[in-house]
Amino acid sequence: MRVFASLVSTGVRRQPHGFMGHIFRAFAVCVACYTIWAAAFSTWDLVARTMVFLCMMLVLVFPMVGHGERANSDHPSIIDWILSASALACLLFFLFEVDTIAVRITLFDPLPIGYWIFGVMVLLLSLEAARRTVGMGLTSLVIALMVYNLGGHLLTGTLKHGLITPAHLLDIMVFTTDGLFGVPIQVTASYAFLFVLFGVLLERAGGGEFFFGLAASISGRKVGGPAKVAVFSSALFGTLSGSPTSDVMTTGSVTIPIMKRLGYPAVLASAVEVAASTGGSILPPVMGSAVFIMVEFTGISYVSIAIACIIPALLYYLGIYVQVHLRSVKLGLRGLPEDQIPRLLTTLKSGGTFIVPLVTLVTALGLGYSPTMVALFGAASVIVVWVLRWRTFSVGNLYDAVAQTAFNMVAVTGACAAAGMVIGGITMTGLAGKVSELLVLAGGSNMALTLVIAAALTIFLGMGMPTPAAYALAAALLAPTLINVFDLPVLQSHLFLLYFSVLSAMTPPVAVAAYAAAAISHANPMNIAVAACRLSLAAFVLPFALIYDPAILLQGTVLDILVSVITVALAVVLLSVAAEGFYRVKLPWWSRVICVAAAFCYLIPTTLSLLYGTVAMAIALLPLKPWRSVTTPAV
Fold first, then answer.
1. How far apart are CA 482 and CA 313, in angstroms?
2. 109 and 234 share a domain?
3. Based on the domain organization, do 95 and 143 belong to the same domain?
4. Is residue 214 part of a domain?
5. Are residues 237 and 163 in the same domain?
6. Any idea what DSSP says for residue 500?
7. Of the N and C termini of the chain, which has fewer Cβ atoms inside 10 Å?
8. Distance (Å, rounded) from C-alpha 533 to C-alpha 579?
9. Which residues pair with 582 in a beta bridge?
10. Are the C-beta atoms of residues 215 and 238 closer than 8 Å to each other?
11. Is residue 457 part of a domain?
12. Is there a contact between 246 and 467 (Cβ–Cβ < 8 Å)?
């Protein structure tokens, strides 16, 4: 475990303060303004503007993230300043060379000495940024792939590839869109940054408090009210932030202490928040940053992906809600005190204007605007709403929110830069095809077994990584097998990998969202991760359901969709009942097994399997009588 922890340990995070804090906040605002300009108005070549973005972010990385866990948490070291200055030098070089880079012919025009110097420099800086922000796991993979790129021609057998010279490697990695400046960092520099800006602005304006109040007024009085409030509020805020970790830190800082105060065990309170926050990355209309990478990989429009994800996302939260309810009934956990439950009309009156940004997003998507413009419209609408709520608005708060957006993107940028290098290495060597052969060899012609292996590999690749980077690696390595070997549709194949990339945020042993919750509840993060996975049991089955039953992606006739939604919903409920071991009474082991069997019958879209599932459900649940020994603990 110590060795594994060292692989995923990251540098200490610093908050800029004092004179240098003002300098870096000003620079962060410049990064945000440049990103908005480049994404919406620039006519620069894609590689050139992405180069500038990455170098600007690297300038911020090294003073803000120490070299390790024991680095000074207050002041950057001399090494940090040297690395930041080196990133600034790269920024100036690429700014001066923008026009030349745009017209040069890759692998034909030789690399001048300046291109060698600054190309190698930006590669090394990006590797160090990845090590500091996401640990040695992903960084080691990048280094191993580079060694393989340069030395793979010496191997024999399946893994052998043609000769790749250092000049070839540097040219592809740095001066094309197939390496460091590939899809992951391109998405980070456009859609992802702007949607994170939208989320930060909304939270600073008071949107988080409004959504919590809305959730509390709807579900606060029910059994297990605090946990259900956490589910609703995390879903509402998570769909806007798109980040499980930031969602935990934002809504969890309110919901976890409330749950603990009302008698919830610290692990359970944290697990509810982690499970609910993780689902925000797959809940339309915003979803997470990874979906924008999916847009680039698949060529499918963002609107089509968002529409397809509506039912699976709601089913995800149905499973969590059912388990939270059953656990609360079993433990006798009551709702929020009446004095802590806001009135619905009062909540809507005081904060209903925060619904306007959501309406703006949905309207812009429906009108066919690009994700970039949708994010800009959403951010602009938040600012308008914030200004109208003049008591909380100030230019200083707006300035800090814009700067915080750039600070929030530091870790994601480091991870996506490394993911781009991994994808570049895979592309140059044809490694995806080789991995596909190995995956087929392991799974044979059995699609179900291959899907299980692909799911496990996706979770493994996502350990300790932001979801966008995890998905990018899974899409590059595993999607070709699902699409080309098993003839699965592109949308379903990539959504399958996207879902498991999202779930890696709460999957042990490196559950980044669980670590964030542990910082609030002071519970063991591994216990939180295990409990969160148990609360989200149905979520690990849903990706398989969308492979075998595309009707839940709103594909097919109205009748097909209706039947599929009902049957998969029943499967989710049955899996939740089996996971909790409770339905009106404590279930014996055989009843739980039958519930699981019935659930899998409902996931198979045939008339006979639905009949078997119904009979099994009746045998398992109908004879049960309510358990009258439930007591409410003193609070």
1. 22
2. no
3. yes
4. yes
5. no
6. H
7. N
8. 10
9. 586
10. no
11. no
12. no
Average pLDDT over residues 241-268: 75
Helices (H), 152-243: 166-175, 183-187, 193-205, 207-219, 225-241
Q: Which of 64, 63, 126 is nearest to 414 (CA)?
A: 126
Give DSSP secondary structure letters for 105-162. PTTTSPPPHHHHHHHHHHHHHHHHHHHHHH-HHHHHHHHHHHHHHHHGGG--STT---
Q: Residue 13 has what DSSP assignment?
A: B
How many Å apart are CA 569 and CA 22, to the nearest integer?
Answer: 52
How many helices and strands (H and E) does the chain possess?
31, 2
| 452 assigned to some structural domain | no
Same domain, 117 and 171: yes
Residue 158, C-beta contacts closer than 8 angstroms, at least 6 positions apart: 434, 437, 438
Q: Do residues 507 and 526 lie in contact, with contact meaning Cβ atoms separated by under 8 Å?
A: no
Across the range 254-275, mean pLDDT stands at 82
Helix residue spans in 299-369 (DSSP H) = 302-331, 344-351, 355-366
> What residues make up the domain containing 336?
197-405
Q: ω before 509 within 30° of 0 (cis)? A: yes
Give the integer Cα–Cα distance in Å for 571 and 403. 45
State residue 510's pLDDT score.
Answer: 64
Instruction: Tell me how far apart the alpha carbons of residues 107 and 531 are, in angstroms, rounded to a whole number.
Output: 52
Residue with tokens 């800029």: 16
- Lowest-confidence region among 289-298, 491-500, 504-513: 504-513
- Which pTM does this prediction carry? 0.75
Mark 182-218 as b/e (b = at least 16 C-beta within 10 Å): bbbbbbbbbbbbbbbbbbbbbbbbbbbbbbbbbbbbb
How confident is the model at residue 92, as a pLDDT? 94
Type of residue numbered 459 = I
Q: Contact at 8 Å (CB) between 465 and 415?
A: yes
Phi-psi region of 370 (alpha: psi -120 to 50; beta: other; left: phi over 0): beta
Residue-wise pLDDT tens digits, 345-403: 888 888 888 888 888 887 887 787 877 888 889 889 999 999 988 777 888 899 999 99
As to burial, measured by CB atoms within 10 angstroms (0-12 exposed, 13-18 middle, 19+ buried), residue 115 is buried
Structure tokens at 618: 């009746």
Residues in the chain: 635
- For range 509-523, the mean pLDDT: 75
Q: Please state, in angstroms and rounded to a whole number, the distance separating the CA atoms of residues 48 and 32.
A: 17
